[in-house]
Amino acid sequence: MGFLARERTVAPPGWNRWLVPPAALAIHLSIGQAYAWSVFKTPLEKSLGITGTQSALPFQLGIVMLGLSAAVLGTTVERKGPRWAMFTSLVCFCSGLLISAVGVWAGMYWVVVLGYGLVGGIGLGIGYISPVSTLIKWFPDRPGMATGIAIMGFGGGALIASPWSTSMLTAFGNTSTSGIGKAFLIHGIVYAIFMSVGVLLVRLPSEEFTKEKAELLKDRPKASVAFNVSANNAIKTPQFWLLWVVLCFNVTAGIGILEKAAPMLVDFFKESSTPVAATAATGFVALLSAANMAGRFVWSSTSDIVGRKNIYRLYLGVGALLYLVLLTLGPTSTPLFVVAAMVILSFYGGGFATIPAYLRDLFGTYQVGAIHGRLLTAWSVAGVLGPLIVNAIADAGKKAGHVGPDLYATSFYIMISLLVVGFVANELVRPVNPKFHEPKVADEAVVVAEPEAEAEETVTEKVADKAEDDNAEKVTAVVAEVEVAEEIAAEAAESEAAAEAAEIAAAEENTAEATVAKWNEAEAADVAETADENADEAEGVVQK
């Protein structure tokens, strides 16, 4: 498809790289609507007569499909390019909303589950990873900040979608299938228009920008990565699985609070002298969402300064201590509980935003989007594990007659243990063994080009790519050797030509000598003949 082709996405000379983050935000702010699914839960339960567990199915299936589609289609996204990926995300996500509208109008909830969860979930996964590797290529000097801007949009999408969806449901009727269907329909149309901005705006770095990359990195030598690892090789390394554990356990710890935030706050202070009202608990959820969004930008940008391993030491180490604070001091002070929970949620968001830059540091920019997609399976596991731990233990505690903080004590201790395990896994991360690095030939062309484009590359472009991948010295040496060989060949050719000329000259000289000899012989014969004639004439005279 011409317009969506990778080569049509390359930026023209002079393109401003700061236009790329808004393109990423247009996608992530839209698909971030998934975090506002809870707004539809109660209206769907009342209008279709389903249970709370059933009303959560579209969201749960959507998160599972997010991880699976990102893992399965990550390599395709890298090969096809960001514009194709963003357009595919637009089609799937918005189609999911439109299918959900039809399902609600028809009174068939399974259509809503398949539309929003299955089809829309594929759009979530492709859209989530689509701008990641592109932003890292545009911002080699600030990869953490760049990915933080985009992924911040996913965390902040609910802040826009939640009040917008609520107002639409109120206006159209939040207990009628007609009103809920209209809300889904408008969501699908508006998000399609908004995501189209990202599709039109996104660009890949040009050769001109690639040459300028060295200038961007001169003040940040540690930001440069001189090697690349493919997605298939990455999953064979211990580093990938250590980061999988780090992400999974950090997300589990955060989503455990996020999923049950409002009832948790109410339960914690139910038996205290300052109980928290349900309306105040709703405000607590909004604060956690804001902390989640802010952490994605602030902490990931900070990682560009302090390093990826150090920032995860903060997420995991301080996060474990904050859970301990919630257990020991949280019940004594509502503000302390709120602040500690907000910081934990900021670490939760920061962990999502920093992981692409961490992957880039370890595996290079080649197929980093595909590697990121495969790592997001950790999110799928954590999305089930976190709520399961908190809800199951709280339900068991209620049956046992426990109240207040006792309902969550065991689950908090489990979260602390998981964060400690994640901390240890982060400490074990080391540079990737060079045996997993892609050959330099692969770095030259395969890294940034499709196989079809590779076949069309000229020798000159390959040499340029080598220089781009820090092999300039080798290329210079090869060129020097070629020049020397050419000089030797030229000298040999000159010598051969000289020898041939000498042979020709000698042959010509011999020919000339033979000719002169023939001339002399002929002249001598003429002289002899003339002498004979003279002698005969003289003899005749004498006789007379």
If you had to describe this structure to a student in words, what would you say it looks like?
This protein is mainly alpha-helical and 544 residues long. The model is unreliable at 441-479 (pLDDT under 50). The termini are far apart. The chain is 78% helix and 0% strand.
Give the key terms:
single chain; 544 residues; mainly alpha; 23 helices; 0% strand
Record the SSE blueprint:
Layout lengths: L19 H12 L6 H11 L3 H4 L1 H24 L1 H25 L2 H21 L2 H7 L4 H30 L4 H25 L5 H11 L13 H4 L3 H21 L2 H8 L9 H29 L1 H21 L5 H30 L4 H8 L1 H23 L9 H19 L12 H6 L5 H6 L2 H10 L3 H72 L1
Helix pairs in contact: 1-8, 1-9, 4-6, 4-17, 4-18, 5-6, 5-9, 7-8, 8-9, 8-14, 8-16, 12-16, 12-18, 12-19, 13-14, 14-15, 14-16, 15-16, 15-19, 16-17, 18-19
Protein name: MFS transporter
Pfam families: MFS_1
Keywords: Membrane, Transmembrane, Transmembrane helix
The sequence of SSEs as H and E is HHHHHHHHHHHHHHHHHHHHHHH
Q: Please state the oligomeric state of the protein chains shown.
A: single chain
Please provide the count of β strands: 0
Radius of gyration: 38 Å
Number of separate helices: 23
Poorly predicted residue ranges = 441-479
For the sheet with most strands, the description reads: none
Shape label: globular
Q: Specify the helix fraction band.
A: over 70%
Q: Which class do the helix and strand fractions yield?
A: mainly alpha
Kindly estimate the percentage of residues that lie in beta strands according to DSSP. under 5%
Mean pLDDT: 79
- The end-to-end span amounts to 120 Å
Short structural summary:
The protein has 544 residues and is mainly alpha-helical. It is built from 23 helices and no strands.
